[in-house]
Structure formats: C-alpha cells, structure tokens
Amino acid sequence: MKSAPSKIPTPKPSSPGRPKDLGKRAAILEAAKRMFTAHGFERVSMDQIAAEAGVSKLTVYSHFGDKETLFSAAISAKCEEQLANGLFAVDPDSSLRDQLLGIGRAFLTLINSEEALAIHRVVTTQPPPTKLGQLFWDAGPRLVQEALASFLRDEIAGGALDIPDVQRAASQFLCMLKGEMNMLLLCGCIEQIDPVEAEAHVQATVDMFLRAYQATSARKR
C-alpha cells in the first residue's frame, strides 16, 4: 500500500549559494509569526522582523527573498508545528476511524490556536482583491487539504473508502471540522473552546464522514 505524505510540504524559496544557517532561519520564522500575528502584514517590515530575530536584514532576504515568501513560510511552519510527522500517513495498525480522529483533533487544534485565528483576521480584513489571501490559502489550507486528499486516496486503494470525488470529500471533512466553534472564536463570541465539546464535535464529524464514504465491504468487517 502506498503511503501518503508524512507531513505538510513546505514551500522552498529558490536560493542558490552556500547552505543557510538553520538556526537563523528558525529565528526569522518565529519572529515573522509573532510580528505578522500582532501587527498584520502591511505594518510589518523586513527590518522589523530582522531586529526581532536578532539578525541582519540581508540575512532575512538571503533566506526568504521577500516579505510575501516569508509570510507563506511562516504559515507553513505553523501548520507543521500542529500537524505532526506521519499524521497523513496510512497506519496499518490503526483503524481508519482512529486515524481520522487524530487528523481531526490536530486540525481543530491548529485552526483554533491564537496564532491561526490572528492570521485569519489579518487576511480577511484586507480589501479585495488581495494577494495576501491567496498566499495564505496556498501556504496553509490548500496544502493541508492536499495532504488529506492523498491520505484518502491511499485508503480508497486499500478498500476502506469509496469516494467518487476525493478533493471534494477532503474539503467537506475539513469544513465540517471547522464548524460553528471556529466561527464563534473568530467573531469573539467565545474566548475558548470547551475541550469536551471539541472532542464530541470531532467524533461526530468523523462518524458522519464515514457514513458517507466508508466502503460497503469495510462496514462488514
């Protein structure tokens, strides 16, 4: 059985030359996440990020090229933090339901984190048309959806699922997971999510998804 990608792929800027200092790259990403979250995109400069990271502006440009590339890398880094290695790889020792529950819990934790909520607010307050929204979509939600779709294809190949439109099913699963709680957080109607309610929501979402797409032969096992 073919394995799905083990983690969210990270966009890599084309930067010929000598190898980069990974410690400085990590410091720049952490600074960028803090600055973009706190101040938005337009009000943050590469100079400010360099100062926050304790590196030169030349070092920031050497690693990321421009502010748009750095913003995308910061979004991808946040996804990688929450979506652990192997999350989207088929595990023959776990049931499909357990694997979907693990994906659901990780995704819900990601999108409801303070950083993710802040970045979402930054993106959605930009007047349309906005390049920032496309950057956010490509660096985060699209890559997560593609990783999930790859996982679903592997489960289809193994006979566990029967899905005519994999991309649509992946989108449906993630949208159902976001649910009402995420919108309540974004609107400021609640300050935090009840973990008991969050778990019930994930389980109900997974069960609904399986009722729709679990292969008939798999139901009888």
Short description:
By secondary structure, the protein is mostly helical. It contains eleven helices and no strands. The protein has two domains: 50 residues, Arc Repressor Mutant, subunit A, CATH 1.10.10.60; 137 residues, Tetracycline Repressor, domain 2, CATH 1.10.357.
Structural features, described:
InterPro entries: Homeodomain-like_sf, HTH-type_TetR-like_transc_reg, HTH_TetR, TetR_C_Proteobacteria. Residues 1-21 are annotated as: Disordered. Residues 22-82 form the HTH tetR-type domain. Keywords: DNA-binding. This protein is mainly α and 221 residues long. The chain folds into two domains: 22-71, Arc Repressor Mutant, subunit A, CATH 1.10.10.60; 83-219, Tetracycline Repressor, domain 2 (Orthogonal Bundle). It has helices at residues 22-39, 46-53, 57-64, 67-82, 96-111, 114-124, 131-139, 141-157, 166-186, 195-213, 216-219. Helix 8 packs across helix 9. It is elongated and about 60 Å long.
Largest sheet: none
Average pLDDT rating: 88
User: What form results from the Cα inertia axes?
Assistant: elongated
Corresponding CATH superfamily of the largest domain: Tetracycline Repressor, domain 2
Region (Disordered): 1-21
Domain HTH tetR-type: 22-82
Protein name: TetR/AcrR family transcriptional repressor of mexJK operon
Keywords: DNA-binding
